[in-house]
Amino acid sequence: MRSETMSRPAKQIHLAAHFPGVNNTTVWSDPEAGSHIDFSSFVHFARTAERARFDFLFLAEGLRLREQNGQIYDLDVVGRPDTFTVLAAIAAVTERLGLAGTINSTFNEPYEVARQFASLDHLSAGRAGWNVVTSWDAFTGENFRRGGFLPQERRYERARNFLRTTWKLFDSWHGDEIVADKETGVFLRDARPGAFRHADPDFDIVGQFNVPRSPQGRPIILQAGDSDEGREFAASSADAIFSRYDTLAAGQAFYSDVKGRLARYGRTPEQLVILPASTFVLADTDTEAQELAHEVRLRQVSGETAIRFLEQLWNRDLSGHDPDGPLPEIDPDPGENTVSRGRASVRMYRDPIATAREWRERAEAKKLSIRELIIEVTGRQTFVGAPETVAHGINDLVQADVSDGFILVPHLTPGGLDGFADRVVPLLQEWGVFRTDYQGETLRDHLGIGVDR
C-alpha cells in the first residue's frame, strides 16, 4: 500500500523525538556516541528536531537506577540530569519545539508539579508537555520520605486524582470566575486569581497558586499505559498516548480501541494523538540499511545484556547460562520479582509462563540462541531502509490508522536524528503529509488540539 494512492484526504503526520536515557538503545561503542549529560548534546538534538519541524522533544526519567542481582546494570544511563532543568534550558535555545518530560504522580505532590509545569509553559511561551506516569515498587519508593508503593488498582486512581488536582491549580487563575469550589460548594468570599480548595482521598489542599495562567492554560498531557486502566485514563484525560504497537493489525486494533473510548468523555478522535515509539536505520540502499540494522542490534544486545533481559521474564538468576546456547529448561518464577529492582520486570509480562512458551516455540522453529532470540523479541527497528523506503513506511502506517505519527528513538545521540531530518522529512513534506513550517506557537498548536482554557 502506498498512501499517495488512497482516496481520502491524507492525514498530517505528527513526529516527535525521544532523547534516550533509560534503556540499552544507545550504541555506546560507536565513535559518534556522545554524552547523555553535557548540555551540548541536548542542544544539538533539540535544534535538529526543531529544524525538522517536529512537534516535540521528549525526555523520559527514572527515579532510581535499576538493579539486577543486586548490581546496577548496563541497561541504564548513569547521570541523567533533572527533567525540568533540562527542558527549561532547552527552551532558551529553541523557539517552537514542544518540550515534554516524564514526571511521576506517585512520588510527587500536585502543587509542586503544577507550579513547575506552569513555569515551564511561561518560559517556553506555551510549549510544555507532561507525561504522567505512576510507580508501584517499594524499591523506588525508598528514595522518598513516603516510601512504600501502590498496588496496581491504586496507581491510576492516585494519578487521576493527581491530575484533577493540578488542573484545579492551573485553572485557579480565572480570576472572578472562581466564586465557589465545585466539589465542596464552599463559597470563597475573597475569590481572587490563584485561590484554590481541593479535597479527595489522596489530596486535601487549600491556598493560593502563585503562577499566573500560562499560554496553553494547561500543559499537554501524555500517557503511556497499555492496560485497560491506562487506556481509559488516556481517553478521559490525555492529549497524546504512547503506543507500543507499530504493526498493521495490532496498531489498528489499539488505535480503534482507544479512539473509541473518547466519546463517553465528550471528546472527539482528533483530541487524542496516538504515537508509537519507533527506531529507524537509514542507509543509501535498503540492503545497506538491513546490514547496518543487524550490526546495530548486535551492539545493542551483547551476550550479557541478553541474559539480563531473559532474567526479567524468568525472574531467576541466569548468569550461569550461555547466551549463545538454548533457553533454560526451567520455567519462569511467576511470583514476586526478586531479580530486577526498579523495573517492571516480570510485571511487564502478564503471563510469564505463556510468554516463555511462546519464546521457546519461536527459538525452536528458527533455531535461535538466547542472544538471537532476545535480539528478535526486543527489536524496535520499525523503519529500516533507504530514505524513501522509511518515508513510505511511516506514511503508510499513519494513513492506515495504525497511529497519528511516531516518536523516533535514534540509536545514536546527539547526532542520530540528523540523517532523518535531512533525508526523510523533505520527502514527507514533498508529499504534503508533513508541515514545511510551524503553523502556530504552542505545543497544542503543533498537535492540532487548541488552547485549553
From TrEMBL:
GO terms for MF: monooxygenase activity
SUPFAM superfamilies per record: Bacterial luciferase-like
Annotated region described as Disordered, given as residue ranges: 320-340
UniProt keywords, alphabetically: Flavoprotein, FMN, Monooxygenase, Oxidoreductase
Pfam families: Bac_luciferase
Protein family membership: Belongs to the NtaA/SnaA/DszA monooxygenase family.
Name of this protein: Nitrilotriacetate monooxygenase component A
Source organism: Plantactinospora mayteni
